[in-house]
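>> received
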Amino acid sequence: MIKARLKRMLTGLAERQYERKRSVKRITYDTWIREKEGPGRTGLEQDNGSMEQDGGETPGKTLLFYSEAGIPAEKARQITERFFRENPGIVLAYGDEDILDPVDGRRCNPWFKPEWSPDTFCSYFYWGSVVAVRREWMEGILSLVDREVLRIARSEGAKKISDLYRLARELTRIAGGFERSCRTIGHIPQILFHCREEGQQEAFRQFGCPDGKTKLQRVSSDVKVSIIIPSKDNPALLEQCIQSVLRTQGQEAYELIVVDNGSSEANRLRSECFLRSLPVKSTYLYRPMPFHFSRMCNLGAQIAVGENLLFLNDDIEMGCPGWMEEMSLKASLPYVGAVGMKLYYPQGRLIQHDGITNLPGGPVHKLQFAPDDQCYDHGRNLFDWNVLAVTGACLMCGAEKFRAVGGFCEELAVTYNDADLCFGLWELGYSNVVLNRVFAYHHESFSRGMDESSEKLERLRTERKKLYERHPGLLDRDPYFPEGLCRNALDAGIRPAFVTARNTPQLLDVRKEEIFLVQAGVECGKDGRKISAAHRAVRRDDCLQIGIGRCDDCALEGYAVVCGDNNACYERILVLCPIEERAEGNGRIMVYTQKLSEQYRPDLEANISQQKNAELCGFYLEWGNVLPEGVYRIGILARNKLNGLRLLNWSRHVWHNRQDGMPTGRTSADL
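>> returned
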């Protein structure tokens, strides 16, 4: 009875300490933005048109048009003047915004925006409340605008949203916004405007061209499509895929090209017979070889006659009519590179793919596993959205553009070949886009399994390294994913960065110690004596769940959650074990350890809410050259602060501290 009461008391104390730490880690947007911007006015004052000019800058370089449903930020004109001065080629700009409570002056709901996104602009007026124009350029093009736009442009200041949109639409056309390699329109990554109410931001969604057929975009829909499908020993999946194409396509002209890398004789005959029975032109390429997505797609592209190429996994099932016309219209635009679409997991509305975001940990599917029953990030899942890359599972590209970029890189056999193709198209000045009005189902990785083995993890690491060797300018950069959003690689959601603003990376500062490792279920040592916490035994146990989102030359980032227990009662310790040490079985091993500071992870709070107090189970370490040269296995030790229980689990990653002092994150396949 006394022990139980003492345990409850200590647990309550640990939870109160945990709650205090969590409250320190959490931060409101109002606090974050005011710390970032520094002292200034509350923003409640009405703008009187006499904004302070940047020191020494001649007034009047910028025309500033803004919504009547709020007020410009205190230094909006100063910021835009500086932006145009530092970017002489840009003539149009827009910025970020938030909502200012007119009663208490608190700021909330930041709207962080991407760099110039022509297809997003055609879907809805994502520029929002501010249109900034270089005055000199405006004066030179007034003769090109119609009478109504001329009326709007004659006086800067507050405007109706409809007037702002009409002005922006006309000026983007004149500025070449719908041409390849547009460099005349810029995004200012600072808050330029304060709305009065949340609904005012949503009002911008009614403006745009959701049918994608304005005079800026109209092209012929009579474009032949070559559908290229890599497949092996999956005749049932292949037939399901092709039948879904037949069932959902309209009058578009298309051909089918199946590239088989070595099916059995029976499956080969079945696929050949099926293709011969189809009412469309079909080609069957039988090329036995190890799975090589890039080479298989390139083989299909070599014999394709279509003006647009659609690369389609055999585990894709088309979900709605009209998708081919939509993709073809978009892919045929002169400024568009790769076109993808929203993909769901089978038999539901759980998102599998809605574009690829390039983060410090590498390319990831943002919104993966998110239910498609709400609006994310101001319409990210509702409108056509420009993205840096789309998945090769369903990717359309103009044939000439595909060949101009060199096709799929054959140095990337399995992974990142789609990202590489899209990165290359972007570097050539094309815009890649994911369509949200059409969708398909993806029976993900059914054909080749999930990437979980150490061999596949090593391939993933190697091909990711090759990706950034080919595109060094895109390392840690994504023009369509604003810096104001959280960039944690393991978080599939789209969250503002301020929620994790109190997280600061630790520097590696380890100490050497000996631990006595035992396996789960082992209660006695070799001498037959019962092992207890007093013996400082460490139990290897899979109940300690480890997720590594980033392990590269710069940092180690992830989480460690003790499943089935109260995580508020545990502290976490990084364990680096020299590879020559025996890390399995029972016995003493020498390791390097470092206590980890808690990192707030809102994704854990949302995704594994069944585990108690998991929000502070993240970690973020920056490597340093404080260890002897060698290869180290990465593990996490969780110590229960109440009873001394010590649990250990190893990740599949290792750290290679090279002789030149530069660390390299690797997988256990390096062993």
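>> The chain has 16 helices and 30 strands.
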